[in-house]
């Protein structure tokens, strides 16, 4: 297929956290809010003059400094963020919005604070205490924590408008972004889709890592481009899978999938489209803040939710993606040293295989996956097993 | 032939060749209490012999309980005077309580009594709590027994017998769980995978305590037990005033759940009475801390933190435990008043982070080998609040605080400040001249602020000895490895010679 119009530009945006669009937004007076987790509702970080940047540490090399401060048993994402902050790569941030959801991640911002690693004048941070189950009092706590520890500091320190109208405008913009993704995502349901896994991963990443208002015009054009795009005459994909897991901001992962001719039909991982790129319905009869918080708490798929109904819902959600996106199997991926996904992957692989009857593979991976031969070998083997299953079912080998 | 304490141990198993000679009075006291322990154990064994034999044959972890006399001897190793008496009193009190609870568990256990109506009826009166959730809330259901579900198959065996965790951790890893997760939840998961939890209880209250691994392991356990389960979500940033309403709402929600499951109504009077006992237990604990701040700390050693965990989690609101506290405190006060110190103390140390379950008597070794007295231990000093019993509301807020500041939780959650700054405060408060810092390799929350501890100690000029350990997995880091970390530090950094050279290097890898 012909290259997407802005794909090289998108790739360049992913070369560093402080990318061209982030710098542009800062020049225009924007307040850069870094965050790492779905527990921080993205549109709320895009109110008024604030703009969100979901933090990544592209081109991570040595992690020696973080190894001293955080030991070597901490997940690569957390260590890479710390290392990047130590090197000065996050000095563009005005505010770091964090949540005490994963202890390793919250330690990153605590270290940043204690060691004074971000030198931007007026830099501050906020940490929310987020519930692990959905309840009315949990929603109340969640909204209150976001208001007290994220929104109010943004208003007090930087004059960000956090009023109801401002939130509604941010949600509208967010919903426009989501509408684009919903349409692009639907293209993946085709037998021979016009978008590759790598391209989709890149689009998702730029949508999280760049100011929404500035990336939107490019994404609109990309959508138009995709509408016109014709697929290759021969369907190159051997099998279709749903990828499920934690933080995954290295699109080389999707490149490896592509090289194995494995089509990622749906992505349920942090930095992916599920959840995160679905429109938020707002009604006029309740404060926007409460509605957004409820939406994020209810749609959150993090394995730290420990109530039985949420655990069942997580599995049902993945099953739904498998059916809707016509996937042949599931790949559970987990960043090494991630406790949450370590347990979730282990149990889910067994449950999805044995109780749901869906071929499932579980893997763990480093933060930087580029050039991982081991990963490639495992995916190829999984592809072969899926093909064999299809042949046994009487399907054709692609 | 070696001289010193190690000369009394068999190589490998570290079994004592004969009982430790502590002087006439102390040896006689120790022997009497050891004999009392045997009475407790024999009485328990003979009360339901068939049931207990079945339990030993059904549950692999039950073998660990056969090592209790040896375990208690190790926890009292080197102890003299008031320290010895306090340790023996605390340990025997625990032995009585634990044996009683084991009887309750086994008599209701569906695994041991399949199809028994009597066992099923008893089981209906048992409420299971996550092991790090204090049972105080259960005191509001006086017609039911509240048990810490993982305490008896996991936590206690891991302390009693260092190898007890190995099989279960292996099973969890064979199931697919990464080997880097904390061995404690991994052990819990292994028990679920092996179906080695007793089949008891009418319902279960799980919790998000103390850490991420414990949250996740409840998912595996829930699948195995099949009990109606309610997670009690305890706020993480527990120092914040604004999260307390949520904590109370969660407790109320748990009460409603328990009322539905047990068919009982929450008894506020019984709960209030238990809270008042707990407050007295807390005051007794504060007295002990105060005594350890003196020049002649009387109450140190492994039994201190072990009993604290037991009292905070299991025996909170128990008048029997309070009675024991008062007896112990009287002995301790008497020794301090007499200005006696039966041991040689070279260093007053604050012991920080989580102790190793597979080496609970490490404190005793520190004192006997190097003269390092553990005047303050993180595992002992959590939970400093009292519960205001003037109204139902105030009791709920007090209970919320008590739960939030439970074992480990008080320091591992609540922000890095609570663990880091509290250490510097305790160093001052206890006039410590060194820190022994456990480096629990799989504890990510503590590991992730490793550098802050290092730099803080250096800036303050406090020697900090790091001791690697893996909580309850001796196959990753053995007891000998832990001792070696201290030996190297004391010899190369502190330039000291050991008080008892025989304890510097000895083999106890096979010890039970």
Q: Explain this structure to me?
A:
The complex is a heterodimer of chains A (398) and B (512). In chain A, the strands form 2 sheets. Chain A has a 4-stranded parallel β-sheet with strand order 2-1-3-4, with helices on both faces. The model of chain A has no long low-confidence stretch (mean pLDDT 96). Chain A has helices at 7-13, 20-27, 64-70, 76-87, 103-115, 136-158, 164-187, 197-209, 212-228, 252-259, 288-299, 308-324, 339-354, 373-392; strands at residues 31-35, 50-54, 95-99, 124-128, 239-245, 262-269, 329-335, 360-365. By secondary structure, chain A is of the alpha/beta class. Chain A starts with 6 loop residues before the first helix and ends in a 6-residue tail after the last helix. Chain A has 14 helices and 8 strands. With 512 residues, chain B is of the alpha/beta class. Chain B has one domain (18-503). Chain B is 54% helix and 8% strand. In chain B, the strands form 2 sheets. Chain B has a 4-stranded parallel β-sheet with strand order 2-1-3-4, sandwiched between helices. Chain B has a 4-stranded parallel β-sheet with strand order 6-5-7-8. In chain B, strand 3, helix 10 and strand 4 (229-232) form a beta-alpha-beta unit. In chain B, helix 11 (244-262) crosses helix 16 and helix 12 (268-292) runs parallel beside helix 14 (319-337). The longest helix of chain B is centred in the N-terminal third of the chain and has 28 residues, at 81-108. Chain B is globular and about 65 Å long. Chain B starts with 23 loop residues before the first helix and ends in a 19-residue tail after the last helix. The interface between A and B is large, with 52 and 51 residues.
